Amino acid sequence: MSSLCLQRLQEERKKWRKDHPYGFFAKPTKKTDGSMNLQKWEAGIPGRDGTLWKNGLYPLTIEYPDDYPSKPPKVKFPAGFYHPNVYPSGTICLSILNEDQDWRPAITLKQLLLGVQDLLDSPNPNSPAQEPAWRAFSKNIKEYERKVSEQALRYTK
Amino acid sequence: MDINHIVSLIETFNNSHDSKVINDIQNVLQQHQKSELGIDLANALLSQENGSTNVKYFGALTYTVQLTTCLHTESQLWSIFQGNLVHLTRMMFLFTSNPAAASNLLVTITKLMSNLSLIFLTINSDAIGADSNKIPAWRNPVNTCIKLLQHCNESNLFEWRTDNSEIAERLVRTCLNEDVPYTELIGNISSSAPLNKLLLLFTKVIVEDMNKYQSKKSSLSNVYEMVHNHLYISTMAILNFNLENMMSSGATSEVFPCITSWIHYISMARNVSAHGTMDLTEMFNNMINVMCMASNGSQEFPYSDEVISIFDDLFSNDPTLMSFEVRAKLEAIFLGVSRHSMNTSNDWMLAYMNHLVTNELYDDLKVLASCVVDFLQISNLDVCNKLFTNIHENTGDQSLEDYIRVLLQLTNFPLIPILQETYSSKMIEFWLDLAEGYGNLPQEALKADANEIAENMFNQVVQIYLPKISLMNKQKIMEEDDDQSLLHEFDDFRSATQDLMEILWTILGHSKLTIVLIRGVGQADTNNVDLYQVEAMSFLLAKLLDGVNFSQSPFISDAIGENHLIDNLLFLLQTGCKQKEHSKTAQVLKLDFVKATCNLLGVMATYFHVDSKPLGPIVESLFECLETSRQYNPIEYSIKMELQLNRTISLICENCRKELIPFLPNFIQVLRSIMRPESPVSHFTREKFVKSIGNIIQMCVSEGPEAQANHISNMVDMIGGLIQTTDAKSDMLSLLACLSELGSGLSQLPNDDEFIENNPMYLAQLPAFQAYWLQDPMRVKDKVMHLVQYALSKYGTDPEFVEVSCLIIGKAITLPDDIPHFLRYPLSEMMSFYMTCISNCDYASGLPYIEYQLEKIVAGFKDQLTSHEFDEMFKQFFLNYYSSHISSDPDLIQSMVSWVNSVLEAKPSLALKSEYWTQFIVPEFLKYLQAKEKFTISSTTKFWMKTLNNRRYTQEDTEIINALFQSMGKQLVYQTMFSLHHAQRSDVPQYAELIRTLFAKYPMPMKDWLYELLPQITGKEAIFHERFINKLTVTRASRATLSTVTEWWLDCNGLPNLQ
């Protein structure tokens, strides 16, 4: 890991601890020797109140590449996560996470996670990443809502 | 330009409520502002003797519009500059003469100052090296103002017009860069409080604009230099004079916003310019003196809150702006001790805190806490080194001990956290950093007694936080204030404390932290238990015990077994679920009790491998709460409790299958109760409960397969009985889901080797169970099949029923062959079921679920399937519906292609030798390359890639494909390139991958075909495509191919390249 990457990740951790939105969590994972792995984080995003996603706390992993912040981190839900813009592997399709689109080195962890929370209830049908959720969202909203609600129960806070 | 008409328009614009009128007037006024007469208009409006505030402000705003959008020549700039200075001087004179009467001028004065600030930036940005026609550099706007004002008086006020060249031209030029000595400056501001106020405002506006424009303007380095050499000196003189005279009657509060703006400016400038660094020591020292001012016998602290608020901002953003010496002084004032051996006293701090607490000024106390903790963070590393290492030989141990003692006292501030004090929550950050700093120190640098110091100190930290995170405090917050944000803040504080404990564990270990908490939860018997304390400790323990291997940690397991931990946890659970309370506060706390218990019991699930005795009371308690939580709690809370309880039951069942076998009858009894139609328990809970029972039944192997089958059969009968008697569609769907969950519960093996090692009996009996289920003497499979068919006979067109039914019948397809399962249906029976299902359901909505099962069948039965069976499946599930449904629906096309893809992945020869391969699949799938839907394109390109390049091909398969490519390769390339050319930007990557495969497999013909085909497809000559084709021939990597193809696509479509 470059010193720029390390410095930035330490800064991100500090900033997050000092100021993060309510109900979210994010922290570096531990390596097998117990030391902190700043390049891989675990995080949780609460579903926004008043949406189908409420009551759920959705787990994420965030992997920072060696050349972060020039390149964006890879943010993933668990494999099989039901959402039109989440690939079957769990990888999230969001412009601010895409190096070729809206990623900017100044984007903070807080902005990223708020962006993902926003995406939960505002899927982008023009960027489908998985077929079942996209199809249901586009053509059978009842089924989509049922599956999202079931998923919220599985990830209950 | 009719000025009276414009004045009238401005007044109407500001007073009207009709949006159309406002819009129309705005358009007209903007045209005037941007016209060639804009500067004249501004002058005219500002000169209106009796003009209203609106009119005068609009005049100043017109100058802004001219400055920002219509500035073309140096003379224009000069006119605007002169005008602003003339009008500003006149208005400043009016204001300083009679501030009360002229107070409405302030808004216009501020706007004129802002215009001048922009002019200051513009002139000085490119002043150096400029020609003689240019406006000279403007060194110090404050001095210019003072000098101009000295020439303005009551008798000549009417002469201050822009058309009076004596003033606007000669005087302005003379005063522009005239120096004002320090004594003169101080004389001016000390004799006129209004002037003092205006000058503070002016210098503040200038640096705020510097901050605003620094990212937008590229060449500000000259401006930074000008500020550093001139404006900074005047401003510091004014600020320090004000701070030194704060107790006098003329003191102005304007000084603090000005200080804030200057700190922000210097903080920014010192990072971008060599002239950005400016010493603020004198100002900070003066601020500290002002902060410590007290009057009325230490009853009043007139400026402390304002100074502390500025320091708070400083320490959280750019603490090193304050020099080390000033910080050392402040440390002594804040803490009463210093790490730098100075004479210290914090009498002021104690008096101030006492004042805040006595007068319940908790918001100010929070700002003070934030300021102090941010301040402490600056020196965290230094504290860490001095405490634990030999690096600083001469550190006085006593002063350091005192220092830590004060920090611990601050952490333990004797008020309610979050509601009244935030020291405790803010200090978490400090202790976290200190603990991490300690953990990162090299062993060789540590003092001999470093461990002892750390353990002692961090033990005290733990003891401080335990009562702080108690829900008793949450209760007080809720009783005191209905503010949701305070509750959120308290919950966050508790989470942060959990994180702190995790870090402290690395220092204190299980013996000094985990065990202490376990004993804390379990020390009292249930007659004498402090539930709040049990909850707080359980809350922290859940974090510390997560992931602990209890069988390898006997000292933890022993500690759990030695006391009343489980009893007290269950007492907490029962209180949470079953105590009837009516207030919202009590309900919230009860839910927190349930959450804490459930989390801890879930984390401890593997502990019951070591000692299964507590399982009985635990399961009983969980069941009781599950069944009765709705009797004692309003629905919104009972739903949440039910989810928590259910999750814990699932976790315990998953982990303690074998240990729970004796309790199976209890589980069944509870299941019967919650499955009753009138039971309020949710469908989700019922389904997951059935799965948990499935987990236990899976381990009922000691008495042979028949005994286990009996359990399964009884479960199926019970669910079946309910299916046949229910009328409600949603209930029936849930009952079907219960059957599916039962199947899941019996197919899940804990996926670790430990399970296999610990359950040799299970392994040894696998063949007997397999043989049993092959025979299925109790006809369980048939019973399930009938139940599914019964449900489908009622609701077979509903896709939700199709989905669950398919899941039940296909439950065992993907299980390894040697794992017995009661739902392992023969292939023929499954095929027959799915065929009936497809013919009865709504094809479009049911196909995706059936197709998913067909994919699993191909993967699971590939060795048994023949091309003939492939043909049959393809015909029955797809071809028969092609013209009526599939051909017009891209989703169904995608389902069909996906299924063929699954065959190509599992056993390609099934498809290649099919009679439909050349008749239907190849020609039709070629057309689908032109599809417009992302997933159809995706599955089709995947089909062609799998067809061209497949590792599972036999020699014979490869020959078939080579022959195929020879006959239709050019057509495939045409379709691919044609489709790519007409695709959306976001679909380009999918075609790029196919092109890469084509080039890798058939490089030679590809090149020739592209030269021939691309001009036909795009209408552009071959030479246009030459670079693209040549690049493709040498490109192999996926990303590089994508970039090449995208570039070509952009060129062809006349779009600019992103690079």
Keywords summarizing the entry:
heterodimer; A: 157 residues; alpha+beta; Ubiquitin Conjugating Enzyme; four-stranded antiparallel beta sheet; 4 strands; B: 1059 residues; mainly alpha; 50 helices; Ub_conjugating_enzyme (chain A); UBQ-conjugating_AS (chain A); transferase (chain A); SUMO-conjugating enzyme UBC9 (chain A)
Based on the structure, what is the oligomeric state of the protein chains?
Answer: heterodimer
SS field, number of helical segments of chain A:
4
Number of helices of chain B: 50
CATH superfamily of chain A: Ubiquitin Conjugating Enzyme
| Residue-averaged pLDDT of chain A | 92
Q: What is the beta-strand fraction of chain B? A: under 5%
- Order of SSEs of chain A: HEEEEHHH
Main pleated-sheet profile of chain A = 4 strands, antiparallel
Which regions of chain B have little confidence, pLDDT < 50, spanning 5+ residues? Answer: none
Radius of gyration of chain B: 41 Å
